Amino acid sequence: MTLDGLKRDGKLKVAINLGNAALARQDEMTGALSGVTVALARRLCDEIGAEPDFILFEGAGKVVAAAPSDAWDIAFLAIDKERAEAIAYSDPYVLIEATAVVRQDSQLSHVDELDRPQTRLLVARNSAYDLYLTANARHLDLVRAETPKASFDRFRSEPGSADAVAGVRQSLEAAFAKDPDYRFLSGAISAIEQAMALPVAKGEMAPALSDFVRRAKEEGFVRRALDESGQNSLAVAP
């Protein structure tokens, strides 16, 4: 099965998650989109002869929530079995890390210290790291905001809201790295496989989408797209 069947009236509706700064960004002045997800979407559109129609979301959870309503044709999401009822995945194209930031006066130094009684961690609802921690943390108290940006803003504006805030490393760096009042914990909460995604109703096209991803990796396209968007520290998925 080919991917031509994804387009509608010559267009492909592409969900772009702006909550993950490592993979997609929008220029505040021009509105132009950039990042590896945008590059992959444009390449796919070129292959199937479609015009990209970018649908912008503030977080992965909102992308997933929109899947049953037929709001998008393809998306870019972390692979997670908890989403399997709504989402079909390609093979992964990149690996990213989730970690956490604390205030300078925090006694925490490593992410392994987070899973303690009475420790509160702000997360973006239904993000990959939220799902991972929900399944694996035993004592940690998860405090949920609707989007990554909302969790970062709340951590800044409400000092008593949480002891730390989690996120994709690159998104946290963009929000906190230049602020001396905050610091990063050592280590990673989880390593996250990012993939292209389809609504489960179109899951029969997942093998063809995996083939597209495989070719993009083998030809060096994913590596170049990451480097061109300033994400040379990210690893292309094997």
Entry summary:
The protein is of the alpha/beta class and 238 residues long. The chain has helices at 36-48, 60-66, 128-136, 148-157, 169-176, 206-218, 221-228, and strands spanning 11-17, 25-26, 33-34, 51-57, 75-78, 87-103, 120-124, 141-145, 164-168, 182-184, 190-199, 235-236.
Question: Secondary-structure map with pairings?
Answer:
Blueprint: E1 11-17, E2 25-26, E3 33-34, H1 36-48, E4 51-57, H2 60-66, E5 75-78, E6 87-103, E7 120-124, H3 128-136, E8 141-145, H4 148-157, E9 164-168, H5 169-176, E10 182-184, E11 190-199, H6 206-218, H7 221-228, E12 235-236
Parallel strand pairs: 1-4, 7-8, 7-9
Antiparallel strand pairs: 2-3, 5-11, 6-9, 6-10, 6-11, 6-12
Keywords: Signal
Protein name: Amino acid ABC transporter substrate-binding protein, PAAT family
Domain Solute-binding protein family 3/N-terminal: 11-233
